[in-house]
Specification:
- This protein is an alpha/beta fold and about 350 residues long.
- About 50% of the residues lie in helices and about 15% in strands.
- The protein has ten helices and nine strands.
- Strands 3-2-1-4-7-6-8 form a seven-stranded mixed β-sheet, sandwiched between helices. The chain has a two-stranded antiparallel sheet with strand order 5-9.
């Protein structure tokens, strides 16, 4: 017969084994639960990484949300750059202008003109303008007919007085109200500003009229419109044309000289200008006028407007046409122009 103490010891051991078993079961269940959660988290992370890899194309690498957003933003920028590169490629074919800028709008004629001619004038030259109107430019209905039948627009080009609204401005405004044949630039009319004035003329002209060519003429030159039109038409197959009486010449560094060039040192030790079209009259194609318009803020101007125009096309894929019909003289036979 077992003693009572022996019985109590046996019962205590039995209960201890049960408690240990229960604890082991709980521990096993907890381990399984934790392992399951870890496994689920691991699967979720793998899925997220794979999803990020699929969306960003970054391969087998884990990325933060911020990094992912940066990658997505970069890819959006890349798409825009690719689109711009396509526009640029098309612009090179068309001539230095983006697709959006080349689309017609309300300011442009529906039918492309042959030429827009800007006669550069200034204050106190009304007699010259009247002579030009009678000699070759035409006025009123005849000026409109020139545009409709020959596709040629002719306008005088002038700036504003340094004292805005003074008698000089009012005289031009009154003359323009009678003739309607001016391009009035928002630019100060001054001899030292002439090169910039020519640049702004091309900008205004190409933004206002869609033409094959844009022509600059001085207000003391007679122009044979028919000969000019025929000469320009012969070069319609060339996308980037700079046409005129091409010349070069000495760069004068003496401040007292009539043709002094303040930037003479930029032209080298030989002090000779590059080839450029004489300023009496020259023509540029639509592509070059668009190029001037786009780059107006960074195009350098020199003391002389014809030299400035020539400098804008150096380094570009431009066809320089030395057309002797653009060489003006009082006794030119068969020429486009004559000095008057």
């Amino acid at each position: 017969m077992r003693s009572r103490g022996s019985s109590n010891s046996t019962g205590f051991g039995f209960h201890s084994r049960i408690s240990a078993l229960v604890l082991a079961m709980f521990a096993t269940m907890a381990t399984i639960y934790v392992a399951g959660r870890i496994w689920q988290d691991a699967e979720s992370r793998v899925y997220l990484v794979q999803e990020l890899d699929r969306r960003t194309g970054q391969g087998n690498s884990a990325m933060s949300v911020d990094d992912t957003l940066k990658v997505i933003a970069c890819r959006e920028q890349k798409k825009k750059l690719l689109a711009l590169e396509m526009d640029l490629s098309a612009a090179r074919q068309e001539g230095f202008i983006s697709k959006e800028s080349s689309e017609s709008d309300g300011t442009r004629s529906k039918k492309r003109l042959l030429a827009v001619i800007g006669i550069v004038t200034t204050f106190g030259r009304k007699k010259n303008r009247d002579v030009i109107r009678k000699a070759w430019m035409r006025s009123g209905a005849a000026l409109e007919k020139l545009e409709e039948e020959k596709g040629i627009v002719v306008r005088f080009v002038i700036g504003r007085s340094s004292n805005r609204g003074d008698s000089l401005d009012r005289e031009i405004d009154n003359e323009h109200s009678q003739t309607n044949d001016f391009i009035v630039l928002n630019h100060v009319e001054a001899p030292e500003e002439r090169s910039k004035k020519i640049k702004f003329f091309f900008v205004r002209a190409v933004e206002s009229w869609d033409a094959e060519f844009y022509v600059k003429v001085n207000d003391d030159v007679y122009v044979n419109i028919d000969t000019l039109g025929a000469t320009l038409s012969a070069h319609l197959d060339k996308p980037r044309v700079y046409m005129g009486c091409m010349k070069s010449g000495q760069v004068f560094s003496e401040p007292t000289h009539k043709w002094y060039e303040p930037d003479w040192w930029k032209f080298g030790d030989a002090k000779s200008y590059f080839r450029y079209a004489s300023g009496e009259i020259y023509a540029i194609s639509r592509a070059l006028a668009q190029f001037i318009s786009i780059n107006r803020s960074i195009l350098r101007t020199y003391a002389h407007d014809d030299v400035s125009a020539g400098s804008w096309f150096i380094g570009l894929d431009v066809k320089h046409v030395d057309e002797r019909k653009f060489c003006c003289s009082p006794s030119s036979t068969g020429s486009i122009c004559a000095e008057v």
